[in-house]
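User: My advisor, Dr. K., asked me to get a structural model of this assembly before our group meeting. I'm new to this, so sorry if the format is off. These are the inputs:
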Amino acid sequence: MTGQPATLPLVAITHEPIDVAALIAAVSHARVGAISTFLGTVREVNDHRPVTGIDYEGYEPMAVREMQGIADELVEEWPGLRIAMIHRLGTLQVGDVSVAIACAHARRAPSADAMRRAIESLKARVPIWKREHYVDGEWTWVDPTNSAAPMASQS
Amino acid sequence: MTGQPATLPLVAITHEPIDVAALIAAVSHARVGAISTFLGTVREVNDHRPVTGIDYEGYEPMAVREMQGIADELVEEWPGLRIAMIHRLGTLQVGDVSVAIACAHARRAPSADAMRRAIESLKARVPIWKREHYVDGEWTWVDPTNSAAPMASQS
Amino acid sequence: MTLPVLLFASYADAFGARTVAVPVTMPCTVADVVLAMRSIPGGEKLPARPLVAVNHAYAKPDARVSAGDEVALIPPVAGG
Amino acid sequence: MTLPVLLFASYADAFGARTVAVPVTMPCTVADVVLAMRSIPGGEKLPARPLVAVNHAYAKPDARVSAGDEVALIPPVAGG
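Assistant: The format is fine. Below is the predicted structure of the whole assembly, which you can bring to the meeting.
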């Protein structure tokens, strides 16, 4: 932050609930005609198992660096793109927002395409992990590369 | 509304500022893992002409019916989709939100794809029109089918 | 009889009215309504095939129009 | 010397620690670090080619590791 309402790209890791309205406000601008926003939320069921909550863990300095890299790549592809992305860590409950991405542009196609690319890139390379807790007391570190047989699981 | 917080699909025309947070809340649910939101905002420049404001006019009962039709088609294509779409009419200033669409689903691809389809369909067939007012006092009914030479223009 | 046809945006400007009374013989088609509107002052500004809605739904040129139907001309839409 | 390597999530569980001291001869490569870790209790649970970060950036197996570098093993990511 340098005195303006928000320095963009805005990337952040937080341990508090995400303020979606503030994220949208950060990318809003008189030159913007479209704002596409993605919110990831904790579901009550994953892979048919009832989930009671999720612990998100991150390698914070690297996560911020990767998110910044993603944002820079998107701005390079779509000049004028205004992007904000924030990921929450810690223990989240069902319904909580874990990640929020807002992409604003003069036109809707770049806004929507950048938003989609941002969440796909974040899921592919930002060093964040989640441990799902189930109703039966078991928990698993989610491994998207091997969803049929989680790598680590214990009761 | 039938006693629940929101009956979905939620489609509406409003003459007041759009409450984006309420729209997102309407589609939120414990079974939802992804919420994609699109906001259309009034830009200060369109086709290189400085814009001072926009009057949105709609054929309201038909606009609601078309929006309902779009929502129903999207739910049919992506079962479980939770969708809310609202368009504002009246005189808007630069930066104001003219349309908001929120699409929630268990998974992010249907959420994002439905959001994109919703705004494209809305722009293609919902009977709403906009008259742009320019700095020089002129105004034009925007005609997306003929953006190089607007059909009606007068000072 | 005359059929009231709703007008919006640039079409309302063209006819200088939000509704125009169109002389038609019932029953008729959407195409008949549009044709009759071309003889009304402002009708010369209509495009070759303007969109028409009957009872809040887009209707094809050969769609039937009956007394009591709500008919509207739909200029190129520009929502969003 | 020993190089401290940061661990997270399932890898931290495998080694029972958030950091493990890995015996290596400097200078070495990322692959050397991973190989040395396989001899440490818990190392047998590592996949064939675990991702490694050096100074907060993904690094290839042949990337050089120097004293003072921040090295971390990166389990399959699952953000979002």
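One thing worth pointing out at the meeting: The first strand of chain A starts at residue 10 and ends at 14.

User: Perfect, thanks a lot.
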